[in-house]
Design goal:
Amino acid/polyamine transporter I; about 575 residues; Rossmann fold; homodimer; 2 domains
Chain lengths: ~575, ~575
Amino acid sequence: MPLLCPDALSSVAYGTQAILVVLASAGTLALWYSLPISAMIVLLLTVLVISYRQVITAYPGGGGAYVVGRETLGPVASLVAGASLLIDYTLNIAVSAAAGVAAVIAALPALLAWRVELCVLVVVLMTAVNLRGTRESSLTFGPPTYLFIAMVLIMIAVAFFQGKMFAHPAHALLPAPVVPGLALFVVLRAFSSGSTALTGIEAISNGVPLFKPDSVIRARTTMVVLGLLLGVMFLGTSLAAFSYGIVPNAQSTVLQQLAAAIFGQGVFFYLLAFVTMGILMVSANTSFAGFPQLASLMARDGWMPRMFASRGDRLVYQNGILVIGLAAALLLLIFQGSVIRLIPLFAIGVYIGFTITQVGLIKKNLSERSGKWLVMVAMAGGALLTATVVVVALATKFLEGAWIVALILPLMVIAFLRIQRHYKAMSQELRLPDSEVRPSGKAVVAVVPFSGISRISQSSLSYALSISANVVAVNVSFTDQAEAAIRDAWQAWAPDPSIRLVVLRSPYRSVTGPVLAYIDRLQEEFGEGHVLVLIPEFVVGKWWQYLLHNQIGLLLQANLVFRKDIVVAMVPFRLSGR
Amino acid sequence: MPLLCPDALSSVAYGTQAILVVLASAGTLALWYSLPISAMIVLLLTVLVISYRQVITAYPGGGGAYVVGRETLGPVASLVAGASLLIDYTLNIAVSAAAGVAAVIAALPALLAWRVELCVLVVVLMTAVNLRGTRESSLTFGPPTYLFIAMVLIMIAVAFFQGKMFAHPAHALLPAPVVPGLALFVVLRAFSSGSTALTGIEAISNGVPLFKPDSVIRARTTMVVLGLLLGVMFLGTSLAAFSYGIVPNAQSTVLQQLAAAIFGQGVFFYLLAFVTMGILMVSANTSFAGFPQLASLMARDGWMPRMFASRGDRLVYQNGILVIGLAAALLLLIFQGSVIRLIPLFAIGVYIGFTITQVGLIKKNLSERSGKWLVMVAMAGGALLTATVVVVALATKFLEGAWIVALILPLMVIAFLRIQRHYKAMSQELRLPDSEVRPSGKAVVAVVPFSGISRISQSSLSYALSISANVVAVNVSFTDQAEAAIRDAWQAWAPDPSIRLVVLRSPYRSVTGPVLAYIDRLQEEFGEGHVLVLIPEFVVGKWWQYLLHNQIGLLLQANLVFRKDIVVAMVPFRLSGR
């Protein structure tokens, strides 16, 4: 429970508020519409619970929208689902961090000036923790989850027993008030904002194998319990917010205003702020796990760069964690850590995923001639509903930021397709024509640039002799005297006939130029063989001493790397480091 | 002339202003003191011209304060001189850029809001031009220099003939007015600020060899001409500024105010602004040449990192140019492109250099028993005067920024000493114990990580066979099936007995961890021999394709580089790049 449910339940922290903010723009009378909108969202929730119970049965190994899409609707649908989910994992982290910080600020208003910095700090810390590798355990994630559920339910219950909840039946049950200037457009926009409250309910079906034993049965039961809990908490919060006349403002959150109205600014009020922050962090952490997992799955299918497929030394998918952490931090900076400004981007991806999952499952059931017809109808209705949410969200919030998702999603799909095309072309090119082509050696000439006769040239020339019987020691001299000196010293020192001395003259004190030109000439002369350049490299004890060495070597390496048929190797030589 | 004089002459653009700004803080009556201060500075100039004529004779090969100090006063004095000059080259670029931009802003006030940006832009452009390599020619540097000289002289002449110059003899020639609240401290500070007008007159003695033929005689003559010109222009500007009642302000420069007062805001006014900018750029360019030259000289003496000693492919000292460009840009950012705020740091270094040069020359003449006694006395007086300027500048402007120079200068000297100590210890360590220690080969085992049998593994294993008869092909498998598959494929493919197949098992999908651990084991087993790791590397056609490859190879390389006795080489494999 504490592993897969916080993602959905934490949405209660901003779902109701998302509705109220939109309605409040049309005046306080319009807030009444939060009640039918909330009812509509609970209906949506019911259909989704039915649908996802089917997904659990059909994919007991755990299957997100990407897997379901891949196995039922083909690659493009699966890529759309994959891109949607990757976008929404990122947004979930950004929205959770922003909403968590907003809850804390509601309790400690002095922090308001640091909102953006706090949001980014939260993301940076979570990235660091995930890079180190966490053991996901009920012990750390349990307390905030259970406390949050308990506190929200208590709040709703107290509101109920205080009698205020239905004190004004005229308001709550009578026909809709006529609000001048309230367009259907605004109501639809409020609905699509509120639909963010259901993000995360797909988490259970992704993680079925975690329920052991009897995973399918227990996951299906958990799905119902989660649906009931989320429904009660969300509807209760909406009802209570309306009954207590909560109007959203920039300093506080709806949940904190409600706590203040019911219990006053006491222990409950402050505790709720931090518990909300806690469950939202747990929810964000789910995305920190989900994004790299999905990315590694897609990388193994060849749609994403391979670097997402492999784990690092700490056994985490470090590249995926880094990318999502960076992206979420960037989003928070661009949108100034504001939940209200992030919401228009959010949920679109999740609902695309819901739709693809349901359509895919209907197709699967049809082709297998399985499934009860009533459930099938519910799922078809669900798919229609979630597709409608996508269209409504895009239409009503396009200019507020939904256009960003509408732009990036197809770009991502195109990128996935191009990446796979590249990998396929490459594997074609890498295929050996026939198994008779086996590894076989060629002649190698080892080139060792050196500045004078010393321990380091002795060490690197020894290395060269270990590798090849054809070694060229290359020296760059600026003057006649220098050339004569090096030739004399060489004569006296290195009689090994397999080492040739080549002295290059450089009147302008450039070292890399002449060496590079010489290597070009050598490569031409040497024809079929390999040219191996061994660059002596100092290893020193203190960081600043690196500023004193290796510059020419690094310059040579930078110029030679990626050259056709040339291999460069740095031969380390350790100094005592004084 | 146009090569070595602009540095000194361009100082006229800010010298008088530097005096007036300080005095104006004590009220307009105090501006009278600019006259005796200017006279004092001209006296200083006379002494310096005499001294530097001696320097030219003594060092016909061209010798700056560093060389003179090194050859007469020993290493520490030469390092102090070197550090001072490096600091002042940097400050000359910053002050010239700031003063040039100030002149343009005086003509085009709309640019005021972009002062800092313009200053940094000027420095970035000059850095880029110098990195590309310029041919220093009289043709490009001549026009602004001659135009500047002509325009300033015309301005002074017109002021003289307009009759205003000595219209108030009561002001100009009568005893000093009593200015309440004007402390000696302020007068001294104004003097030390004005002494920046003489920066750059040492340039001729540094560049004696450029005067061909009869370089010494012609350089000595040029020195006198330069002294006369600078004296007339500086004193004339100061006198005219006082006569026309110019009070410095933040929007304009003294030179532009003077031009406006004498000629009105016409062609002369606008032309002067751009000519001033021009000569200041020429002056800054002198430092862009001087800093890298001095740094390379000091690097060859072992005091500075060797990377300053060598020229790059464009035959310029790129590292020196980059460092001074970066430092000047940083100074302009810190001091907001303000000449007034930069002046307190400036000149201290130059006057330390003047002092060391003169003291060194006196010592040389004494030990050689050469030199006329009258010249010797003048030089001793000069050394005393310039030393006094250093003390006065440090004392009167310590808190305004002189402390920065007082802090950095000794730190630089300490760094020079430590760098030389390191290079000396290193060369000691690199010395071969006796010439009998010659290069000799050892056994090498070549390790090739590979992921499957393909063209790229064929290519890198072939390379390994070219280098060693002892090759290990290392594969990392995540599952039993993968391991069995690779073993079967290997059996069918590579019968060369010199290649051993090693399959490492990694249940957690980490690739680098097992490979690194294996290399450690191998190194222990292999004992005395070398371990060479050959990492296959893709070379692709488009930049974004690099994101799709080589990640694990780069990670391996990063982990192996600098390991004792392990050499890593990337073996490039070119893909067609689709």
